[in-house]
């Protein structure tokens, strides 16, 4: 052992550090080292970094010149720290690890020391001069930064192995100690369950999230998705450039209980594969809650630092029923409103409606709609005899009661479905459609088919849906077969009973009116002004309690009447 090594070893002991030392570590480049990269003849160990005389004017007795490189520092849309060129100890580390200065090029020798690899070889330890895919260094880690950023530990509480330099900056030496081989990768402490990461990063809800508590992934914790060096995606140091790939590594059924990846291969799906991490319009943590440039990634709907088995949407931002941003959704639809309400393009209707509204939040709003499915509030209509248990007129439903995986044994939620638009069950909208349990399976999940076809809520249901059916028909109208979608808007309408006509099928009556009216809330009576399938309603009235209908006639003809009268 050289005198210099002895001096440094004594200093380490005096300072209270009982490290296993540099000898035979990867930082031991002496000829007698067991490391793969080493000198062909030089026996000294410390000389590759330190010298007692004629050193560089950088502590501690540095024996290497700075590379003088212009580095590309880490940057991120969500970074609040000012990150510039490397300083302090990080410059010393990079004199080897940027790969631009020969490993044997030291100040104390007239000639380079011969080393089996002249420069740091390509691989994970060669950081290079592009630091955009590496954890940020050489920035001021201040209390103000911690308070402004949030989810960062105050630097005054960093009293253990993790330390800032004398200028209060985070450096390579905050996480790595070149003389300490007690932990892998020269870390200053063990990183089991990401204990090193959590020394600075205090993520809200982390201790309850599945990524922290699951036996399958908790040992690697943060490292399952993030990597501090040579990351696949520069911003936020994700392991893979494609955001969804970081999730689907586990959520393809190989680790997580459900195969979410399979859902995104279905006919109708949220198109998470359409956006890359570096693409304009992809998810950014600091983006507006209401998406002005619509896109969808896993992290638009799930917070990986908060989600758990009982609450997969924990810690997710949204928009409440009043249109205001909320940091934590209280109801599921508040998440959906991020894209399907006040965003630039809203939620385009697949049907050309009489009232063509694209804002789902408004459709479900009791102050803006005469009728609506009871998502945001209890419904208005007290007369819905077709509802099946456990539903009643006081019930509330959620978006995923309709929009979800079509495989009931699969993962819940609107990831993908074989039925458009991401519906749990089939819902035919083409006019005409032959009525069957499968054709309107989505409706029949809550509304009893028998009740609909026996006209308990509307004396012409069977006639419209079956083209006669149980109520009989009239000449030329036995194949009417009108789908539910022609009359009803499944979200909400400015007219009662979700009536919002499909204008590709329904037009104005002979008197120029297109309207549905209900005689009173909770009543099974009302009427329509319209023309469709060759029939003029001007108006056609109905009463469910008596089964009577009147004023329904052929185009250009007089009124029909009675329970078996015209359309």
How would you summarize this macromolecular structure in one to three sentences?
With 567 residues, the chain is mostly loops. The chain has helices at residues 3-14, 88-97, 143-149, 172-175, 195-200, 210-213, 243-248, 260-263, 298-301, 333-340, 360-363, 449-453, 461-466, 484-487; strands at 139-140, 169-170, 268-269, 318-319, 325-326, 371-372, 416-417, 492-493, 515-518, 525-532, 535-543, 548-554. Among the domains are: 1-199, no CATH class; 386-567, no CATH class.
Question: How would you explain this protein's 3D organization?
Answer:
The protein is mostly loops. Among the domains are: 1-199, no CATH class; 386-567, no CATH class. The chain contains 14 helices and twelve strands. It has helices at 3-14, 88-97, 143-149, 172-175, 195-200, 210-213, 243-248, 260-263, 298-301, 333-340, 360-363, 449-453, 461-466, 484-487, and strands spanning 139-140, 169-170, 268-269, 318-319, 325-326, 371-372, 416-417, 492-493, 515-518, 525-532, 535-543, 548-554. The chain has a four-stranded antiparallel beta sheet, with no helix packed on it. The longest helix is centred in the first third of the chain and has 12 residues, at 3-14. It is elongated. The relative contact order is 0.06. Residues 1-19, 469-477 and 555-567 have low confidence and may be disordered.
């Amino acid at each position: 052992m050289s005198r210099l090594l002895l001096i440094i070893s004594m200093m380490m002991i005096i300072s209270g550090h009982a490290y296993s030392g540099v000898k035979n570590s990867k930082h031991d480049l002496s000829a007698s080292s067991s490391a793969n990269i080493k000198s062909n003849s030089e026996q000294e160990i410390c000389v590759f970094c330190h010298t007692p005389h004629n050193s560089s004017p950088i502590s501690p007795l540095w024996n290497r010149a700075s590379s003088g490189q212009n580095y590309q520092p880490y940057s991120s849309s969500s970074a609040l720290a000012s990150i510039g060129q490397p300083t302090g100890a990080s410059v010393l580390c990079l004199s080897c690890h940027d790969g631009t200065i020969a490993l044997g090029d030291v100040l104390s020798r007239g000639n380079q020391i011969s080393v089996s690899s002249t420069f740091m070889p390509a691989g994970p330890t060669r950081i290079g001069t592009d630091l955009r895919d590496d954890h940020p260094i050489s920035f001021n880690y201040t209390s103000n930064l911690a308070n402004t950023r949030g989810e960062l530990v105050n630097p005054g509480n960093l009293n253990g192995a993790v330390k800032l330099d004398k200028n209060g900056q985070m450096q390579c030496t905050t996480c790595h100690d070149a003389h300490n081989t007690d932990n892998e990768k020269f870390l200053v402490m063990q990183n089991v369950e990401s204990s090193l990461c959590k020394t600075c990063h205090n993520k809200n809800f982390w201790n309850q999230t599945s990524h922290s508590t699951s036996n399958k992934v908790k040992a690697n914790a943060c490292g399952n998705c993030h990597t501090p060096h040579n990351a696949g995606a520069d911003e936020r140091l994700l392991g893979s450039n494609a955001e969804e790939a970081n999730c689907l590594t586990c959520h393809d059924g190989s680790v997580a209980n459900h195969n979410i990846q399979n859902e995104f291969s279905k006919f109708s799906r949220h198109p998470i594969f359409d956006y890359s991490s570096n693409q304009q319009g992809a998810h950014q943590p600091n983006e507006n809650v209401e998406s002005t440039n619509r896109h969808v990634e896993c992290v638009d709907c799930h917070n990986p630092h908060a989600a758990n088995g009982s609450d997969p949407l924990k810690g997710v931002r949204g928009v409440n029923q009043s249109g205001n941003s909320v940091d934590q959704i209280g109801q599921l639809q508040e998440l959906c409103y991020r894209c399907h309400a006040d965003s630039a393009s809203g939620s385009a209707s697949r049907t050309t409606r009489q009232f063509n509204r694209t804002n789902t939040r408004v459709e479900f709003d009791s102050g803006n709609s005469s009728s609506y499915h009871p998502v945001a509030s209890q419904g208005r209509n007290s007369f819905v005899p077709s509802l099946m248990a456990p539903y009643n007129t006081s019930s509330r439903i959620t978006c995923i009661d309709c929009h979800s995986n079509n495989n009931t044994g699969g993962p819940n939620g609107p990831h993908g479905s074989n039925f458009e638009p991401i519906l749990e069950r089939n819902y035919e909208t083409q006019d005409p459609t032959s009525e069957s349990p499968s054709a309107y399976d989505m409706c029949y999940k809550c509304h009893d088919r028998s009740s609909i076809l026996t006209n308990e809520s509307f004396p012409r249901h069977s006639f419209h849906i079956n083209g006669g059916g149980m109520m009989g028909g009239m000449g030329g109208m036995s194949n009417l077969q009108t789908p539910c979608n022609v009359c009803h808007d499944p979200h909400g309408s400015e007219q009662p009973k979700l009536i919002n006509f499909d204008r590709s099928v329904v037009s104005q009556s002979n008197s120029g009116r297109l309207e549905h009216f209900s005689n009173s809330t909770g009543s099974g009576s009302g009427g329509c002004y319209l023309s469709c399938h060759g029939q003029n309603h001007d108006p056609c009235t109905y009463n469910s309690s008596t089964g009577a209908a009147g004023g329904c006639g052929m185009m250009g003809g007089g009124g029909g009447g009675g329970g078996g009268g015209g359309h």
